[in-house]
Amino acid sequence: MPFQLKDSFGRTINNMRISVTDRCNFRCRYCMPEEGMVWMNKNELLTFEEIARIVQIVSRLGIHKIRLTGGEPLMRKELHLLVRQIAEVDGISDIAMTTNGYFLKEQARELSEAGLSRITVSLDSLDPIKFSEMTRRDYFHKVWESLELLTSLFDTAIKLNVVLIRGINDNEIEKFAELARTKLRPTDGGQAFIVRFIEYMPIGADDEWENSKVVPTHEIIERINLTFPPLIPIEYHGNQPADRFRFSDGVGEIGFISSVSEPFCSSCNRIRITSDGKLRTCLFSLHETDLKTPLRAGANDEILSEMIVDAVRKKEEGHLINRPGFVKPQRTMSQIGG
Ligand code: SAM
Ligand code: SF4
Asked: Could you tell me the domains of the chain?
């Protein structure tokens, strides 16, 4: 029986998110302030070789899915070289990436050839003006061009992450649902996008989060059902944060990441590595395990492996958003790796 990385609540950890940089060319209002972000020095970031070594170690512990994120992962030069190194690690069956999409037009092809299997693009508005307001960058058209290219490169639907904020972009729920149903891949006519609505979480740098700005999943479903053939849950075996739904006429899929209204902590199967080499067992952890210092001091695989097993054993039962004990982590989503 292969090794299984288990925490003290019996959850099996088989999924690791790796932040490759804290830098970003966008300034999404819910994530970063407009000015004043202090970036890590380049020598603080794990090198590609260091990341690949950690991946080798965790793959022997049963982790087989990797997601690259950031900051904006494509701000890290030659990311395809890292993808190739990870793809060569025995036991890694899936390499995905979450990106704002800006650099994809230039890089998508070589990333795919290097072994990247799936890409999720964050896109909070289909209206170029609203997009600029939310990201503080006038880049909608560039991102859309990337998306058009992706639909012809990959033979599966591209996931679009949409963070809804009440009073800002919740008037676009129907437009996104329509997109999930009507936009097709030019290659084989399959659905081009799976739209995934993410509940707004209290982890940005702006401190503007309020519960009343979260648009809960049940409300989105009710809204969509007023206009489209009703959504039906898709039975899915395996762990993933999104609850998946299909439209009852069989056309299109929508996902919901209900981190605030219906946390999925009890089935959480993931850990995270920050770009400066800290292991986090939850997005909302208040504690990190420094892997970079021992790694750079020459620790062998066994020692690093034990540190990871020990940290996972102490993984939090769940986050406390909306409960009295909630403490917002010091680091923002872009610094932790979303
Ligand atoms: N820069 C990349 C991107 O935007 O896709 C990857 C990093 S970003 C931190 C990862 C995901 O976190 C994005 O889909 C983003 O929308 C989401 N995110 C950031 N801040 C959030 C917040 N306060 N609440 C919910 N989702 C958030
Ligand atoms: Fe950058 Fe992604 Fe944060 Fe937006 S959500 S500022 S794209 S890291």
From this structure: 5-336 (3.20.20.70)
